[in-house]
Amino acid sequence: MVAKIESLKNIPIFSSLSEMHLEELSKIMLEKTYRKNQVIFDQGDPGNSLIVIKSGLVKISLVDSNNHEFIIKTFSVNDFFGEMSLLDGGSRSATATAVEDTQALIIFRENFISLIQKTPSMTLGMLTELSSRLRTTTENISNLTFFDAYGKVARCLLDLAEQIGEKEEDGVAIQLTLSRQELANMSGLSRETFARILKEFQVRGCLRVQGKKIVILNEKVMRREIVI
Description:
This protein is of the alpha+beta class.
């Protein structure tokens, strides 16, 4: 239980809770491991749980009528997803897939509702974080529509750098487990367009590609690409 409580302290939605509330929450959490490429839930599935990532990487995606995948977001250690299901119990609005072997903590809606009915004071900080997350998701979907191709690639890489990037002497390194096709899907572009823009960013000295590793060398210039 102690390990669960320590994990919860690092998660934004729960970080404002008291030690007592964290202990109560840890009692209703289950642990589960997902294999690489395992679907955690499909779009349209009944929504009955929130999932917290202890280790690994998960992508959230939509598939259009032509079977083209659009990756809305990726989540890594201490991130959470599926939170709307805790509030409304509605069906899943997207598909969640483990990009690599992933360990997770799961909170089921029925247990969560029972807990907050007993301790309503724990909800305010959580609702603030949920509101922030909803706003970010709306912005991400808007970006897929309004940014030009260069802005979409820049936003994709900068988001990944913020999530899983590691500081190096000359920049921020992203060690990728996502394929080039998945990166293109995340940007809302074809693989060919993504690859061409990635190469142009290299020529301009904005980044360096070394196999599965991309190093952001000039974040300032790349951020200019995402200004509408």
